[in-house]
Write a structure and sequence with these properties.
By secondary structure, the chain is an alpha+beta fold. The protein contains six helices and six strands. Strands 1, 2, 3, 4, 5 and 6 form a six-stranded antiparallel beta sheet that branches. The termini are far apart.
Length: about 200
């Protein structure tokens, strides 16, 4: 007996064709909200006219200018960075400190120069908030210096113990730690040496 085709209705074929056509069509573009992007061209022209020509404003024109001023005030407030509370700064500093210690430890692997304690490590990081960087290094205020040298003990008192286990030994920081900070770029660099 020959195989029979499944019966289909005309409606279902049209629905399928319509669904396929709609999935292939590009999604319509979203329009920008009118309230978010207000047009203040008229108010700008009024301000220019008053400043350039000394023209006087009517009540309706003064309202347009006042709405424009209110919009600009809101834009300035929104553009200001929010001040972090002491708890937020401490939490961010602890997170940054943990990332730095982890990055330094990952670089501490065995090399022949570890025998003499002269293997080098370097950690580059980014911290755009000077208050967080100061809190990480337990400073009372954001640093004014670009470079500072800490002893190994000072650095480990601030950051925590930094060591790495290797096969039959433990590697530790040996020399002083140089800290470079570029406040304008929001970057910093720790560098030093480690060994047995």
């Amino acid at each position: 007996m020959p195989a029979r085709k499944r019966a289909s209705s005309e409606d279902s074929d049209d629905d399928y064709a319509g669904a396929a056509a709609s999935s292939a069509a590009p999604a319509p573009r979203k329009r920008a909200r009118a309230s978010a992007t207000q047009n203040f061209d008229a108010a700008k022209e009024l301000v220019d006219a008053v400043l350039d020509d000394g023209a006087s404003l009517g009540a309706a024109d003064a309202r347009k200018v006042a709405e424009y001023v209110r919009f600009l005030e809101g834009a300035v407030v929104a553009a200001k960075p929010k001040e972090k509370s002491g708890e937020e700064v401490a939490k961010a500093a602890e997170k940054l400190r943990a990332a730095c210690v982890s990055g330094i430890k990952k670089q501490m692997s065995w090399k022949p120069s570890c025998k003499t304690g002269s293997a080098k490590w370097s950690y580059d990081g980014a911290c755009t908030d000077p208050a967080v960087f100061a809190a990480m290094l337990e400073l009372s205020a954001p640093p004014k210096w670009k470079m500072h040298k800490y002893t190994t003990d000072e650095f480990q008192n601030i950051m925590g113990d930094i060591y790495s286990s290797v096969r039959y030994d433990t590697l530790r920081l040996t020399g002083g730690v140089n800290v470079r900070y570029q406040a304008d770029e929001g970057t910093f660099k720790f560098s030093g040496s480690y060994g047995k």
